[in-house]
């Protein structure tokens, strides 16, 4: 049982955390037909690219600063009730532009939700601005310049998400340079939908302190050694991986092998209701299905806090 354990997560896309019931309420509010996206109270998608389309459709149900505040508050409050003390949510200012409120209002709304959840439960939250791979390097550099203005203190990190099969990591090196130069923490999606080479590319071109997923590094023993030696932290999301059929089941998931090889690993939910999971469930799977002891799981939580994009006094308080 992991219900009593303290938890932390570094990798959750905020629109992907919207409970289907909340998305349905939003659809009713804005009179949007979501049949084909939400069926029988669950999100419907067939494969990764279809999931990305479905994700964008759900994101478009959140249209005002208040909608985003509600979303962040609802998600973080639920996390806190499961014993979570820290969460980094991945946010995409591009969604703010799509719905017409702009990046600042989008971030302000989410920040209000983070603050409200903290006031109610004590949970600490931060935001990671992500660029979207399939939107291309030019859009990415624009978003990086926006992030580099450091307008909101709760935005502390920078990520690259989206369709891993499009473009090369090197195409986004400039965007990452902009983000790194202004002091944002750096992480990047790699080694999820494509193989170990993408993790190697990410390390070589982006020099991240963390990798979002990174689990397919397991395909290359030298790369696993390098990850362990360099102390790069892996934000693993086993439930997401199994749901997207990156691995057929939890028994085939490489979390245990990466851990045994000395890699620093953490537990994360990714897009929880889309992948029929939650942070609570990821902890439970690590314990009950993958056989990690409470001490080992507490070590992963500690790793998450050590790798969190927070100032040192906050980290000290959380540890
Ligand atoms: C993602 Cl762009 C995006 N949104 C949500 N989840 C993701 N996983 C990978 N890319
Ligand atoms: Zn992700």
UniProtKB/TrEMBL annotation:
<dbReference type="InterPro" id="IPR001365">
    <property type="entry name" value="A_deaminase_dom"/>
</dbReference>
<dbReference type="InterPro" id="IPR006330">
    <property type="entry name" value="Ado/ade_deaminase"/>
</dbReference>
<dbReference type="GO" id="GO:0006146">
    <property type="term" value="P:adenine catabolic process"/>
</dbReference>
<feature type="binding site">
    <location>
        <position position="189"/>
    </location>
    <ligand>
        <name>Zn(2+)</name>
    </ligand>
</feature>
<feature type="binding site">
    <location>
        <position position="13"/>
    </location>
    <ligand>
        <name>Zn(2+)</name>
    </ligand>
</feature>
<protein>
    <recommendedName>
        <fullName>Adenine deaminase</fullName>
        <ecNumber>3.5.4.2</ecNumber>
    </recommendedName>
</protein>
<dbReference type="InterPro" id="IPR032466">
    <property type="entry name" value="Metal_Hydrolase"/>
</dbReference>
<dbReference type="GO" id="GO:0008270">
    <property type="term" value="F:zinc ion binding"/>
</dbReference>
<keyword id="KW-0862">Zinc</keyword>
<dbReference type="GO" id="GO:0043103">
    <property type="term" value="P:hypoxanthine salvage"/>
</dbReference>
<feature type="site" description="Important for catalytic activity">
    <location>
        <position position="213"/>
    </location>
</feature>
<dbReference type="GO" id="GO:0009117">
    <property type="term" value="P:nucleotide metabolic process"/>
</dbReference>
<feature type="binding site">
    <location>
        <position position="271"/>
    </location>
    <ligand>
        <name>substrate</name>
    </ligand>
</feature>
<feature type="binding site">
    <location>
        <position position="11"/>
    </location>
    <ligand>
        <name>Zn(2+)</name>
    </ligand>
</feature>
<comment type="similarity">
    <text>Belongs to the metallo-dependent hydrolases superfamily. Adenosine and AMP deaminases family. Adenine deaminase type 2 subfamily.</text>
</comment>
<comment type="function">
    <text>Catalyzes the hydrolytic deamination of adenine to hypoxanthine. Plays an important role in the purine salvage pathway and in nitrogen catabolism.</text>
</comment>
<keyword id="KW-0546">Nucleotide metabolism</keyword>
<keyword id="KW-0378">Hydrolase</keyword>
<keyword id="KW-0479">Metal-binding</keyword>
<feature type="binding site">
    <location>
        <position position="270"/>
    </location>
    <ligand>
        <name>Zn(2+)</name>
    </ligand>
</feature>
<feature type="active site" description="Proton donor">
    <location>
        <position position="192"/>
    </location>
</feature>
<feature type="domain" description="Adenosine deaminase">
    <location>
        <begin position="7"/>
        <end position="319"/>
    </location>
</feature>
<dbReference type="InterPro" id="IPR028892">
    <property type="entry name" value="ADE"/>
</dbReference>
<dbReference type="GO" id="GO:0000034">
    <property type="term" value="F:adenine deaminase activity"/>
</dbReference>
<dbReference type="Pfam" id="PF00962">
    <property type="entry name" value="A_deaminase"/>
</dbReference>
């Amino acid at each position: 049982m992991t219900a009593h354990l303290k938890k932390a997560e570094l990798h959750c896309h905020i629109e992907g955390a919207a409970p289907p019931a909340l998305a349905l309420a939003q659809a009713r509010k804005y009179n949007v037909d979501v049949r084909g996206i939400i069926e029988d109270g669950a999100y419907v998608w067939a494969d990764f690219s279809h999931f990305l389309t479905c994700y964008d459709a759900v994101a478009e149900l959140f249209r005002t600063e208040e909608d985003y505040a509600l979303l962040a508050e609802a998600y973080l409050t639920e996390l806190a009730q499961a014993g979570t003390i820290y969460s980094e949510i991945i946010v995409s200012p591009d969604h703010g532009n799509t719905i017409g409120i702009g990046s600042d209002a989008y971030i302000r709304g989410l920040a209000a939700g983070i603050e409200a959840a903290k006031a109610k439960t004590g949970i600490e939250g931060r935001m990671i601005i992500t660029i979207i791979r399939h939107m291309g390097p030019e859009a990415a550099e624009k978003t990086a310049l926006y992030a580099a203005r450091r307008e909101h203190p709760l935005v502390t990190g920078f990520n690259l998400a989206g369709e891993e099969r499009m473009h090369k990591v090197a195409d986004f090196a400039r965007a990452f340079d902009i983000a790194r130069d202004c002091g944002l923490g750096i992480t990047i999606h790699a080694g999820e939908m494509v193989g170990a080479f993408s993790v190697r590319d990410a390390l070589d071109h982006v020099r991240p302190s963390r990798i979002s997923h990174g689990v397919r590094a397991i395909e290359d023993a030298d790369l696993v050694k390098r990850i362990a030696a360099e102390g790069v932290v892996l934000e693993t999301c086993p439930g997401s991986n199994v749901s997207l059929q990156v691995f057929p089941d939890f028994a085939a998931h490489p979390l245990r092998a990466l851990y045994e090889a000395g890699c620093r690993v953490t537990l994360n939910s990714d897009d929880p209701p889309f992948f029929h999971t939650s942070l609570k469930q990821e902890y439970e799977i690590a314990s009950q299905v993958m056989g990690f002891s409470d001490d080992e799981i507490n070590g992963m939580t500690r790793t998450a806090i050590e790798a969190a994009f927070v100032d040192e006094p906050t980290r000290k308080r959380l540890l």
